[in-house]
Specification:
The structure holds 2 protein chains of 2 kinds. Chain A is about 40% helix and about 10% strand. Chain A is α/β, with parallel strands linked by helices. The longest helix of chain A is centred in the C-terminal third of the chain and has 36 residues. By secondary structure, chain B is α+β, with helices and mostly antiparallel strands. In chain B, β6 and β7 form a beta hairpin. The chains are: A alpha/beta, B alpha+beta. The interface between A and B is small, with 4 and 7 residues.
Chain lengths: ~475, ~120
């Protein structure tokens, strides 16, 4: 790939590539005016609209280039990301996104149109097919769709597949069982698929209460949704018994891939008896967290569910690859085969780490969580845990403790969830942190624990922005630049 | 912590109070507003809407959560507290007075199906 400036290339008499021309021209047009150029710009526009539908001026924000540069620099300084420091947001698995995956996705030849013919898309199809295979191997599944555009979309897709499976067997089941400590998206996915949600309490150890499960299971049970290790970081030791119970009742076992990072290379949901699962590639395979942008939440299924996968799906046909529509497909949950560039990054990450690297990642993720837990003074009621732990802020308000941690240059953990632990501080450092940054995190935890009520109430006081008034922001949102003066 | 529970109201398990006085006035309890935290938005039905007991009649949003509101009795909505649209904080400040939500002309005024003040108090403790 040429990194040469298109202007330079044009000066040398060489025609810039078409995509370069487009981005070059776009940038020419979007430069802000210099100070000497700033002023009211009058533009005459010929319009066929009647006079009472047009106006003489529009108020558009206009700043000169230095102001704009400062604006964005200031915003970037107020921001905090995984490239600023530790980001132990529990259950979110905030891994660093390696730059080589970004570089790969930025290659012009990675920008391929999905409507190209199969023949011209063989490279793309091969990558997608390989990724399907890698994910199937990692999860112990028989087939994988890459189409769902996010983890929650994957959950919804998985439940739709389960529903289609039951319906194909002539069964109308009405309930999905979800542990009370599950991610909120589990309840939402089941409800959106038209199921009644049955909430399952935890036992004293913080794991699935098998007696309560036995009581909840019935011929109405379509599926049980679980994550393992669970939200407290605890491995569900009875998982094989749980799987048998669900299967005996005619239900399917759904695996929420949120915590897959703890199992990589060591245990597979398919081997535990799970029938359907989703993968959070932004967590486990270090692609950027979507935040509403393009993401991916592939779904793996066992053989019996293969033909229900979304349309289209990629398969091998002799020496080539082709799209096909699974016989009893649930239809489309997104365009084409999902967000290709995100999937490409996941493929690159998995390929580079390999079996040894992925196994090493889960080991270090678990080691880091356990090392950090040893260093902090807050009580951690449940264990032994894997990749994350839930500490309790005790008498403190967990939100205050989190705000105080900001003063020590780290991002705080997830707060007040799961509710099994009072004033929860749910912490997941992931494998990316070094001993030095883990010690920095531990110091921030302990400083928050030692802080007085007064200090906590006023925290943070060393950050670019003070504590946000959430209530005022929700009651009187200012959503336009014009509202800044109000 | 103790919360106000009025003796002249009946209650739903989902924390709505119903005060009979010709029509039935409906709101959210002191306990519920405290659990929710600062209320930022209230969505209510329109006058003339028909409700059945247990039906969702609106939505309340706080900085912590979004919850549905459920009708304690069946009947026609004859008044809506429109102040809540601009001042949702009234639910926090005055749950039994200025923070009322609806008045229902009941078709089924059997309030005995609802919790007594004592029963509701037991639920919140």
């Amino acid at each position: 790939m040429s990194q040469q400036d298109p202007v330079e290339r044009a000066n040398e008499g060489e025609e810039p590539l078409r995509f370069e021309q487009a981005s070059w021209q776009a940038s020419e047009e979007t430069y802000e005016p210099l100070l000497s150029e700033k002023g009211t710009r009058e533009v005459t526009v010929e319009s066929p609209l009647p006079d009472d539908l047009t106006r003489d001026s529009v108020e558009l924000p206009e700043v000169e280039e230095p102001e704009l540069a400062r604006h964005y620099t200031r915003l970037s300084e107020m921001n905090y990301g995984v490239e600023s420091g530790p980001f132990p947001l529990g259950s979110c698995t905030m891994k660093y996104n390696p730059k080589f995956t970004e570089d790969l996705a930025a290659r012009p030849d990675a920008s391929v149109h999905p409507d190209r013919s199969e023949q011209a898309s063989q490279g793309t199809l091969q990558v997608l097919h390989e990724l399907q295979g890698y994910l199937a191997d990692i999860g112990g599944m028989d087939a994988v769709t890459l189409q769902p555009p996010a983890g929650a979309a994957g959950e919804f897709t998985g439940i739709l597949i389960a529903k289609a499976y039951h319906e194909a067997n002539g069964e109308e089941r009405s309930e999905v069982i979800v542990p009370e400590s599950a991610h909120g998206t589990n309840f939402a996915s089941a409800a959106m698929a038209g199921y009644d949600v049955v909430s399952l309490p935890s036992n004293e150890d913080g794991r699935v209460d098998t007696e309560a499960l036995d009581a909840a299971l019935s011929e109405e049970t379509a599926a049980l949704m679980l994550t393992n290790p669970n939200t407290l970081g605890l491995f569900e030791r009875d998982i094989e018994e749980i799987a048998d119970m669900v299967h005996d009742a005619g239900g399917l076992l759904y695996y929420d891939g949120a915590n897959l990072n703890a199992l990589l290379g060591r245990a597979r949901p398919g081997d535990m008896g799970f029938d359907v699962m989703h993968y959070n590639v932004h967590k486990t395979f270090a692609t950027p967290h979507g935040g509403g942008g393009p993401g991916a939440g592939p779904v793996g299924v066992v053989e019996e569910l293969r033909e229900f996968l979304p349309d289209p799906h990629v398969r091998e046909a002799g020496d080539t690859y082709e799209w096909y529509t699974p016989a009893q497909s649930i239809g489309k949950v997104h365009g084409y085969d999902g967000n290709w560039l995100v999937l490409l990054k996941a493929h690159a990450y998995i390929t580079r780490l390999g079996d040894a690297g992925l196994t090493d990642a889960s080991a270090k993720a678990v080691l880091n969580a356990n090392y950090l837990a040893e260093q902090i003074d807050y009580e951690i009621p449940f264990g032994p845990f894997h990749h994350e732990f839930v500490a309790s802020a005790g008498e403190q308000d967990a939100a205050d403790a989190a705000k105080r941690m900001l003063d020590f240059g780290v991002h705080p953990p997830t707060t007040k969830w799961p509710e099994i632990v009072p004033e929860a501080l749910m912490t997941e450092p992931t494998e990316i942190e070094s001993k030095r940054t883990l010690d920095q995190l531990a110091a921030a935890f302990d400083a928050a624990k030692e802080s007085s009520d007064e200090t906590l109430a006023d925290a943070p006081d060393r950050t670019a922005a003070d504590r946000i008034d959430q209530t005022e922001a929700a009651r009187n949102p200012r959503l336009s630049w014009q509202a800044l003066d109000e | 912590m103790s919360f106000e529970i009025r003796d002249d109201c009946r209650y739903r398990e989902s924390h709505e109070w119903a005060h009979p006085n010709g029509v039935v006035r409906v709101g959210l309890t002191d306990f519920a507003q405290d659990e929710l935290g600062d209320v930022v938005f209230v969505e209510l039905p329109q006058e003339g809407d028909a409700l059945s007991r247990g039906e969702e009649f609106g939505v309340i949003e706080s900085i912590k959560a979004v919850s549905d509101l459920y009708a304690p009795v069946s009947g026609e909505v004859v008044a809506v507290n429109e102040r809540l649209f601009d001042e949702p904080e009234l639910v926090n400040e005055s749950p039994f007075e200025d923070g009322w939500m609806l008045e229902i002309e009941p078709t089924d005024a059997d309030l005995d199906a609802l919790l007594s003040p004592g029963e509701y108090r037991d639920q919140t403790e």
